[in-house]
Design a protein that fits this description.
The complex is a heterodimer. By secondary structure, chain A is mostly beta strands. Helices cover 0% and strands 60% of the residues of chain A. Chain A has no helices and 11 strands. In chain A, the strands form 2 sheets. In chain A, strands 2, 4, 5, 9, 10 and 11 form a 6-stranded mixed sheet that branches. A 5-stranded antiparallel sheet of chain A has the order 1-3-8-7-6, with no helix packed on it. In chain A, strand 6 (55-58) and strand 7 (61-66) form a beta hairpin. Chain A is globular. Chain B is mainly β. Chain B is 0% helix and 50% strand. Chain B has no helices and 11 strands. In chain B, a hairpin with a 5-residue loop joins strand 4 and strand 5. Chain B is globular, with a radius of gyration of 13 Å. The chains are: A mainly beta, B mainly beta. The interface between A and B is medium-sized, with 25 and 27 residues.
């Protein structure tokens, strides 16, 4: 399985602080995506980083990818209470004519006002 | 509104009964997916469909069945053969089999007693 593993499982920070979540995976990938899930809701796509990219930014999000270490990190800067959610990495691979995702178990982020 | 709808949000069934979860999308997406999420866990793929009248088993297909008679609809039936059916079920879609980002519905929480 290519399932990613997020670390830490849970993270609690004060509003305004930065939050860093890590993801490790086992086999080669085409790209890696990060998704967010508010409690009891569906997932929302945040950002995708390709295997030939090392860093990508989107607003307050910064994602890094180290394919030699098979790891990625998601940094949320200047966190807000509304950032409270679970964050999942999803490793993507192409095979047999289709592209599939494998999700990790997620990091539960709590941002305290 | 464009998007993916899942109904109902909460579903209760007695053990031994089959139950069908609805998933409809008006995004004109080719590919559709069903995932299962257990507490504190990531998403596990049950079934996916790349085109109408075609579907493939995912990692945990036993005890489930699907159909794809229309592009916009991908219902999931949880049969009595599924040993632990109580879970949160998420439907997703994407533009084509080779595209990357998945769009998720709000989910259905199924409780079987």
């Amino acid at each position: 399985s290519q399932q990613g593993e997020e670390d830490p499982q849970a993270l609690s920070i004060q509003e305004g602080e930065n939050a860093t979540m890590n993801c490790s995976y086992k086999t080669s990938i085409n790209n890696l995506q990060w998704y967010r899930q508010n409690s009891g809701r569906g997932l929302v796509h945040l950002i995708l980083i390709r295997s030939n990219e090392r860093e990508k930014h989107s607003g307050r999000l910064r994602v890094t990818l180290d394919t030699s270490k098979k790891s990625s990190s998601l940094l949320i800067t200047a966190s807000r209470a509304a950032d409270t959610a679970s964050y999942f990495c999803a490793t993507g691979y192409s095979g047999a004519g289709s592209y599939q995702l494998t999700f990790g178990k997620g990091t539960k982020l709590s941002v305290i006002p | 509104d464009g998007g993916i709808t899942q109904s109902p949000k909460y579903l209760f069934r007695k053990e031994g009964q089959n139950v069908t979860l609805s998933c409809e999308q008006n995004l004109n997406h080719d590919a559709m997916y069903w995932y299962r999420q257990d507490p504190g866990q990531g998403l596990r793929l049950i079934y996916y469909s790349q085109i109408v009248n075609d579907f493939q088993k995912g990692d945990i297909a036993e005890g489930y069945s699907v159909s794809r008679e229309k592009k916009e609809s991908f219902p999931l039936t949880v049969t009595s053969a599924q040993k632990n059916p109580t879970a949160f079920y998420l439907c997703a879609s994407k533009i084509s089999v080779s595209s990357y980002e998945q769009y998720f519905g709000p989910g259905t929480r199924l409780t079987v007693t």
